[in-house]
Structures are given as structure tokens and as C-alpha cells.
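Running this now, will post back.
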Amino acid sequence: MKMFFPAVVIFFISLSASAQDKFSLGTGVDYSSGKYGGTTSIDIIYIPVTAKYEAENSFYKLTVPYISVTGTGTSSVIRGLGRSGLVMNSTSTTTNSGLGDVVASAGYNAYDSELFALDLVGNIKFGTADANKGLGTGYNDYSAQLDAYYILDKTTLFATAGYKIYGSPPGLSLSNAVYGTFGASRKLNNKTSIGAMYDQTQSPIVYGAGQSEFTVYLSEKIKPDLKVQVNVMKGFSSASPDYGGGVMITGYF
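Update: finished.
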């Protein structure tokens, strides 16, 4: 938490240096539901506001979310982590909501050709979500990843390989973990594209299951500077929701 405000200042100073380049601002809503190895469902609503600057060979992104978690039980479920094992003193159905974990990202285009591109990306998840409400761990996480893209006519193949360092709150020991994504997108015309991807994350919890999720999405340019994307998701492990879906609208300036 102490690192959050200085880091955000530095982040926006970086943005101002590339203010003449492309800027986008987006928001939407994501809903997911799952039992996460328990007997009752946990419902999560996630509403992010995302700002992004794109320069010639780099990008900077900041996501500030609102999150709401509804469920029953004494063991909290944290978005992106699953059932953490942290005790929540409640045996009735409750809803907790508030500011989620703020995420800052910066990326650099290390290689770019007509058919292939490779980006180096660093991410910081600030522990701004209230741990007492079960909205997050209350600790920062750090990750680094490689994003690769291969273009085949109107189809783009993409993959991510990353490594995350988790901050461990009292009562919960989290190990560092690797994660990855692979998928494909295809342009149907100048306005519409579709895609699918599979995400897998190693469990940071000893003897816990890793996240395993499959997502399909549709993206539509309703104006030259306005895009809408909808998605549906299916989870395949006790660390992932059973299902989910969302919509995101992004404007470009």
C-alpha cells in the first residue's frame, strides 16, 4: 500500500511523455459465478475503468476497478486466486463491495516484423482491495511476461508466458507461479472480429488447483473510434469460476 501512490505518480509522468500518441479509455462489467470447490456459489461483479497510452514501441496501462462479491461460507474467494483459505467470519449470505486491486502495466515492443511481434510486459497489482472484506489479499503482486503474435492473413495467433510473484498476507503462504495463454483471433470484416483463448495459471497455494479457463469473444467497431467487446468464459478447475461473461466498451482518442 505504501508503494501505491508514488508508483502511480511515476506512472502518469511516463504517460505524459507519450501524450501525442494513441490514448484509449474503457469500461465495462464482468460477471462470474462458481463454487470454487465449496458447496455454494460465489458471485463476483467486476467493473474496471482502464486508461491506456500507446507509443511507437511501448504502452502504459492503468486499471482501477470496483468489485462486488456475494456468497456464503467462512472461506473467502478472491478473484484471480480462487478460495484462499482466509477466514471470513460469516456463515450467511453476504455481499461485500468496494475498490478492487489497482493494476499498472507497462510494455515494450522488443521485436516487430510483418508477420511476428514480441512484447515484454511488466505488471504490478497493488493491494488496494479491502482484505477484511475478502476483496483481495491486501498485498502487492508483481509479474513479468512475454506476449507473442503471429499474423496469418486475417487470423492472428497469440500466446503469453509469464511469472508472478505473490505478496502473502498473514495466515496465507503464497508461492510464486507461472502462467500462460494461447489463442487466436480472426477479422470477419473491417469492423468485426472474433476470438478464443485458453488461460492456465499454476496454483500459488500448496495442494491447491491452478486456474483453467476458456474464453470466446466478439469485438465490434460501432464507430471508427469506439469498440465494443463481449465475451463468455467457462472454468475447468476449482480455482476458476464455473462460468462468466462480460462486456467492455473502449473509446480511442
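The helical segments are 4-17. More later if anyone needs it.
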